[in-house]
Amino acid sequence: MRFIGNSDKLKKDSLAYLIYDKLETILNDGDDSLLYYMFPVYSGNIDVGKVECNLLLLSRKYGVFYFDTKKVNETVEEAENRINNLYSCITESFRRIPELKKKRNALKYDITTVFVSDNVADLSLSEDIIPADINSLRDTLTEYQDEVDEHSFELMQSCLDGTVQTIKKALRSCTSGKMTKGAILNEIEKNIARFDIEQKNAASAEIDGAQRIRGLAGSGKTIVLTQKAANYHVNHPDDVILYTYYTKALHDTIKEHISRAYRYFSDNKEPNWDKIIICHAWGGAGTPGVYSMACEDSGAEALSYGQAIRLRGNDPFGGACKLLLDNNKIKPRYDLILIDEGQDFTPPFYQLCYKLSKNKKITWAYDDFQNIFNVKIQDERETFGKNEQGEYNVDFERDKFSNQDIVLKKCYRTPRYSLISAFSLGLGIYNGKVLQRLDTNNHWESLGFHVLHGDCQLTGDKMEIERPEENTPGYSNEKFDASSIQYKKFKNIDVECRFIARSIANDLTEEELRPEDICVICVDRKYISGYFSRISDFLSNEGISSFNLANTASTNLSFTRDGCVTLATVNKAKGNEKGVVYICGADYIFSTPNNVVLRDILFTAMTRTKGWLTITGCQEDFDKCIDESNKLKDNQYKLCFIQPSENETKTIEYHSRAQSSFHNDLEKSIEALRKIGLSKDEIKEDVIKQLQRLLDNDR
């Protein structure tokens, strides 16, 4: 039996804990069962108010059972009314799924309601509620046993979790009768949405402090966080919730997920958006942010990006937050703070959020590997800092709350082969030298991989790592194999861009996709505008509209525009996903194959796909990408390498950052020369002379 809920609170609920303890004894024989505690919670009508579950058992072997007891100062009649209201809410959620109905409104599987008491003989209950004492629970389960088929079991899980509301209706018109890309995406989107056990606990559990939810990109952290916001709003409608994030284009997605989850648990009512504040971390002109609003509250002047970068060039936002914290008293404003994309923030922003929290209830989603520099697990103590007494504000080892650090191993977005390929190319596994390292085998395991051989703590050890199929949803394993990733080499950019445009046209016609299903990400930082200009023109010639995020205003909050193919930089693509992703300009990455900064760009771009991935590039530099992908294939998509030392990888990172900084400065200088009217040949001659002088000086 798997438990979903707050185990600390359960232990303090003596009667509920007795029921739990007895059920655990009965169901320890490998029965595939779930026991929910104080979840789900429904927002009833004005007369009924909040309706919350006590203990709900969902078992393949026995069926669905709801266990409750009489509350303090509650009459049996009042308890019966409360139980009946809860029964109505759950059965109504089941009735929304046609496969869970036997006929009309009759359910395929009913909910057996059990009232647990020491004085069973004295109870006067309606015939719909079964009286039982603790010692008769085994007999009660056996007497009312109703075995549940696997499909219905999964459907009922999705109803109880509320994940059934994340299913979207298939909007693609697939009339060919073939298993096209559009038909496959339709089928996947109609697939049952349900949380795994870690996600259930993360979404449903209320804790009395800080909680971290971590996992790979695409492991469902945003879905869990938005579900948590909706659940908390149902439970605490008068509390103020802050939901903040790093990527501006995430705003609409976050609001939609919260709205749909809340409507599911509240009889289709809309959330009170005065109580749920969804805003960017920084903010800007005309766009409120956590930082800018905190400045306003404190009477401080909010720094612009330009001012902040002069203050602390390598961490402008962190510098702005630190200045605010050091010189102002921060007023607590929020009852619950939810931080998405936590890996993109430095400690000062976390510490600002801690000050803004009334009761220190903060949950943050942290991508364990959104970029290949964050190879160490976040230290929550250093992140949240210390109080005036010199004690850490957050310390998991000290606090020991249940569900305070939840790891999500399953990746729901990126198909298995694409994810393995992203790690292989990103880390340079089959490059001449491995570019990055994880320090422990446990870290690989927490990311959903399995170490077959080797010890990461031993430099020079032979490592062999695989990604088990069970850490990718079954439907994804069925639909996307190694052929879902394509590598295409071209003689020049024009031919490359024309291929991408024609492939997209084919996706829309022959593969029955929508433009909104497709994204092109350019990883060539020098020629982004050239790539997107060509691709836009070629798409326009095919009658296809595009949404170029490289040209949108900083206030843009959307990643998608109806009827348009998205053209995005890697930074704009973070936190988003598409069914089909084209990555162009990949030869730029492999022109300096040992540059870990560039490898990180490719890694992030590759993990944006939830279906098909095509990587394109030009001429000889792209051969390196194809060669590494072939070596991965030859090793049966296992990561086989010699563990590098920490000094090696740190040296590579230092050189990579210095190299990237030099290239960025050089590009800015060339652009400045171009703006004053110098010709291409004059710029080339000037740059060569300056480089020669510098090299001569070194001698």
Describe the structure.
By secondary structure, the protein is an alpha/beta fold. 44% of the residues are buried. The chain starts with a strand and ends with a helix. The strands form 6 sheets. The protein has a 6-stranded mixed β-sheet, sandwiched between helices. Strands 13-12-14-15-11-16 form a 6-stranded parallel β-sheet, with helices on both faces. 41% of the residues lie in helices and 17% in strands.
Question: Which parts are unreliable, with pLDDT below 50 for 5 consecutive residues or more?
Answer: none
Q: What's the β-strand tally?
A: 25
Shape: globular
The radius of gyration computed from the alpha-carbon positions, rounded to a whole number of angstroms, is 28 Å
Average residue pLDDT: 88
- Order of strands across the biggest sheet? 1-2-5-6-9-10
Q: Count of DSSP helices? A: 26
Distance between the termini: 73 Å
Query: By helix and strand content, what is the structural category?
Result: alpha/beta
Q: Report the oligomer.
A: single chain
Percent helix among the residues? 40-55%
Percentage of residues in DSSP E strands: 15-25%
Largest sheet: 6 strands, mixed
